[in-house]
Amino acid sequence: MKKMITPFITLLLCTLGLIARQQEPNRKQYTLVIHGGAGTIVKTAMTSAKEAAYEEVLTKALQTGYHILQEGGAALDAVEATIHVLEDSPLFNAAKGAVFTNNGRNELDASIMDGRTLNAGAVAGVTNIRNPITAARAVMEKSEHVMLSGKGAENFAQQVGVTLVDPSYFYTQDRWDALQRALKKDSTAAGENVDNRQAAKAGTVNRDDKFGTVGCVALDQQGNLAAGTSTGGMTNKKFGRIGDSPVIGAGTYANNESVAVSCTGWGEFYIRHVVAHDIAALMSYKQLSVEEAAAAVMAKVANAGGDGGLIALDKAGNMAMPFNTEGMYRGAVDRHGNIEVKIYKD
Ligand code: ASP
Fold it and tell me: Residue 316: in which H helix or E strand, if any?
């Protein structure tokens, strides 16, 4: 008898613990969380006008998503519309304002995932799609595939009526100047006779100019989670490099059973550590809270030498936004519509 009672009591205590954690009375319940990239974002390098401009767009993005959710709309719709606001702003490294590749192009990556169905869609290396997040959603809903790349993705987007633009639409002076700085560093490295492989590596990973990827996670009134991420990748990327942002499980993941996650940072590390899915797995298999799981996985990335951050929102409206860089553009809105926007470390 005792043998049967002990596991029963343990199970009961675990369940009660879980319920207590999900329903802590003073805990805020969030409905939508965003990021606008992590990196060397320090107050001393920022003007108050620039700071205000970032805060304004982040706030507008949160309001857009919140409005949809408040009306009873789907998490997926909120994620797409919120990311549109960030993609359309030249301040962020996604769509308009995307960073440049080594050969002076903008190659965009995006993905979206529906936590209710586990359906997902992604585009990689596209050059003429105005809102890559919408193309990613079209891949999810209008094709039998999960990820389309390059010309094929562009042809598909055209066929299903996604808005295309001339590639010059994505140009911004700031990002162009960042590429020129990166190219100069590349040629200096070559001039110093640095091993070619090292130079290629250093050039590809331009860590100072990479931040600005955008992402959103949302929880709707029906209890559905969704996540999306959109980026231009990393300044001076070469050879058709694709980062973590369009990779489901690495840069983006959503599952109604656990959590919705969107990542930003040094993509190669996020792919190797399957960051977004690892957080969901820790929550499902080990019953870690969203804060514990997100912190544990960020620590793995940091220990491996990677940097960046992420946003995560669980099915009860608890959220985490850890990062190991100087700053991360980020914001959240709770279920009463209270908005928080932050840029630097607390
Ligand atoms: N994760 C993106 C990439 O590696 C870049 C970023 O988030 O800053 O493409």
Answer: none
Q: Is 213 a catalytic residue?
A: yes
Query: Do 261 and 279 form a contact (C-beta atoms < 8 A)?
Result: yes
- Residue 207, pLDDT score: 53
Return the SS3 of 239: coil
Candidates 217, 203, 196, 223; CA nearest to 309 is 217
Q: What's the gap in Å between 5 CA and the centre of ligand 1?
A: 50
The response to whether residue 232 sits with its C-beta less than 6 Å from ligand 1 reads no
| Confidence check: pLDDT of 192 > 90 | no
Alpha-helix residue ranges (DSSP H) falling in the chain? 2-22, 48-70, 75-88, 132-142, 150-159, 173-191, 196-204, 267-272, 275-286, 290-303
Residue reference for tokens 């140009």: 171
* Burial of 334 (C-beta count, 10 Å sphere; 0-12/13-18/19+): middle
Q: What is the Rg, in whole angstroms, of the alpha carbon atoms belonging to the chain? A: 20
Q: What is the rounded CA–CA span in Å between residue 160 and residue 284?
A: 36
Q: Which residue, by CA, sits nearest to atom 9 of ligand 1?
A: 233
pLDDT per residue as tens digits for the range 5-14: 545 544 554 4
Q: Are 243 and 255 in contact (CB under 8 A)?
A: no
**How far apart (Å, rounded) are the C-alpha atoms in residues 180 and 42?**
22
Sign of the dihedral through C-alpha 294, 299, 304, 307: positive
Whether the CB of 244 sits within 6 Å of ligand 1: yes
- For 111-153, what is each residue's pLDDT tens digit? 999 999 999 999 999 999 999 999 999 999 999 999 999 999 9
210 lines ligand 1 (CB under 6 A): yes
Q: Give the pLDDT band (50/70/90) at residue 275.
A: very high
Going from the Cα of 214 to the center of ligand 1, the distance in angstroms, rounded, reads 9
CB atoms within 10 A of CB 315: 19
CA dist 132 and 114 (Å) reads 16
Reported as a single tens digit per residue, the pLDDT across 217-239 is 999 999 999 999 999 999 999 99
pLDDT classification of 42: cutoffs 50, 70, 90: confident
Instruction: Name the 3-class secondary structure at 301.
Output: helix
